[in-house]
Predict the structure.
Amino acid sequence: MTTGQQDQPTQRRPRKLSSHPAFAPMLGVWGAALAGLSIMVMPPVLIAQFSKGTVLMLLGHQAQVVLAIGGALLLGGALFMIASRASRAERGGADAPSLVARAASHVRAIDPKHELGSASLDEPLEAMPFAPPVPAPSPVADAPVLALPQPRALDLAEFAQLPGRNAVWVEEAPAPIADDAVTLEPRVEAEPVQPSPKPEVATPPSPAANPGTAALTRLRAMPVQELSVIQMVERFAGALHEHRTTAPGTAGNR
């Protein structure tokens, strides 16, 4: 760009006729005058033929004036509406604000007192109130640990005689609870006297069978394929116990 071109004032873009504020009223008046005068210069005979069979026949010679006024209002109003819409569109495009102006119109200034808690934006931070420190939670007391009884030490013979045994635990029967209530003795009724039976010859008591030996005997009688792992361990433990308790000479004979 040369120096001469820089000195010349910038020419404004010419505005259209439709952007003028008087464009729509002038066009409406012109349309009304055109319609009214056009009807008024028509011959009365033509107006009479046109109004035949209508309500205008009752008006007589005034029918031409009524038609002229009606035509002027109809055409003038239509042209005025069309011209006003075009004029608003033209002026709206020229005078429309930019995107920055639209965004600035919707910007709301910040309120430091309500949003920041300070009287102004330059207030020092030391004077601003802060929330109090949160107290540390109190340590939760450990739950009391129940003292479990010591496990029983059993040898193989005692373990084999227990009825409720398994491979891990020994279930003990609960101790009976003492009843403080007074127990009533049952009423004993007199029984009829029966003849005394004949004395029988006392037989010597047979030795009590060892329950562990009976259990081992049942385990030995079962086939090996039907034994479980626990039963095989019990069978092996019983045989080992008998081997230790039996005399060496007797074990050799077996």
Observations:
- Residues 211-254 form one domain.
- Residues 1-7, 204-209 have pLDDT under 50 and may be disordered.
